[in-house]
Amino acid sequence: MFITVSDVIEYLFCPRFIFFMHCLNIPQREERYYKVLRGRELHESREKVNTSYVRKRLKCVRKEVSVYLTSRRYRIKGEVDEVLFLDDGTAAPMDYKYAEYSGVVHRTHRYQLALYGLLIMEHFEVPVNRGYICYTRSNHHVEEVIFRQKDYDAAIDTVNEILRTVQYGYYPEGTKQKARCVDCTYRNICD
Predict the structure, then answer these.
(1) Could you tell me if 166 and 16 are in contact, meaning their C-beta atoms sit under 8 angstroms apart?
(2) Per-residue H/E/C for 115-151
(3) pLDDT single digits (tens) 113-123
(4) pTM
(5) How many of the other CB atoms lie within 10 Å of CB of 184?
(6) 110 to each of 21, 39, 41, how far by Cα in Å?
(7) Residue 88: what pLDDT?
């Protein structure tokens, strides 16, 4: 069984998303949300526009766009917006967000990048010490995220929690941040 990197983001937002989606097979119907639609448009346009552009400021020497990767070892799969190959012989994931930079890289984004980093290391057999997020609603601000071993470990632990939830049909605690429940697609069936 594989889970997606997007599943990890959903789980970190609220662990019950995974239960409703994967244990009860109730779709999220996120297509009704404006930001989700704009984010999808952004990713589609990134695949077509200026694909040969290389970020020299980041010391990128080449890149691959929309790279779909899987790992049997970690039991994850996902599509990296860009895999940047840097002049020091390392690589880094670049993810585009239809969001504003708030001065903080959220845990969801850090774990997403770390999981992409694991996929890149395994597939391309190069070290991955950092990742980048481009916040398109903040004038394409690019934020660097330096990975530590604890980032990789925490991301893998989260993957294992999700796998246990799905395999055993465990009904997890919901998010403690109740403001997230106001606009949740599952609010009518969640207690």
Answers:
(1) no
(2) HHHHHHHHHHCCCCCEEEEEEHHHCCEEEEEECCHHH
(3) 999 999 999 99
(4) 0.88
(5) 18
(6) 23, 18, 22
(7) 97
